[in-house]
Design a protein that fits this description.
This protein has 10 helices and 8 strands. The chain is an alpha/beta fold. The protein is globular and about 45 Å long. The two termini are about 25 Å apart. The structure holds D-malate.
Length: about 260
Amino acid sequence: MQALINGLQIAFTDEGQGPPLVFIHGFPLNRQAWTKQVEGLQATYRVIAPDLRGLGESQGTAGTVAMSQFAEDIHGLVEHLNLGPIVLIGHSMGGYIALAFAKAYPAALRGLVLVATKAGADFPEVAEGRRATAEKVRIEGISVVLKAMAPKMLSAKNLDPTMAAAVLEFMGHSKPEGVISALLGMAERPDATAWLADLRMPTLVVTGLNDILIPPHESEDLTNAIQGSQLKLIPKAGHLVAYEQGEAFNAALRAWLP
Ligand code: MLT
């Protein structure tokens, strides 16, 4: 489906009926990363998964896109669909966006799920690296990002070639403009650590035990900082935990959902 949100055509999946769950994908991904949640949860929930601006099938804008802008787009979609309070699930960069959303629109949330993500800003050298990568993408295209990130998305012990090919296929849909915008947006994102103590909605933190992109200790830190939050560590899963261990992820979500 498509909707005009903040002046852009935003593509999204909207399946099933029941309490709304809104899924925000990570970088450089798109809503296909939530395929197993759309399949596994639509019998009892309304599952909504947009492509962030510039990624997947959504229209983009040139230049930096701040995490708060992505959060505004999510809010625009929530309003457009007249969803009422939602459970918001954000993976990695999607988690940075979910935290920006939770800060701006706490009353719109019935619950928050932070997946393989963290609250801290980039260290200066990491931010500089992202800007350099953005410049490379401008010159060489997205292959530079795919080569660097695809091998780190799944657990190192996962030798399933079909799954690895699927992940590469999802990432391959990313357009250079969207990849650049997101890289620049992540590089300048604020440190959200100070916001965590103010979060009052039920929160679940989930991560793959074998995540090497955002290691599990980051999820432990989030859980310690968010009052009343719960932590679920999923074995045999790397960064893309909701895809790699779809059933275990869905079961954890179902068991927790408020
Ligand atoms: C993601 O999966 O969204 C990225 O790894 C996040 C990041 O690069 O910080």
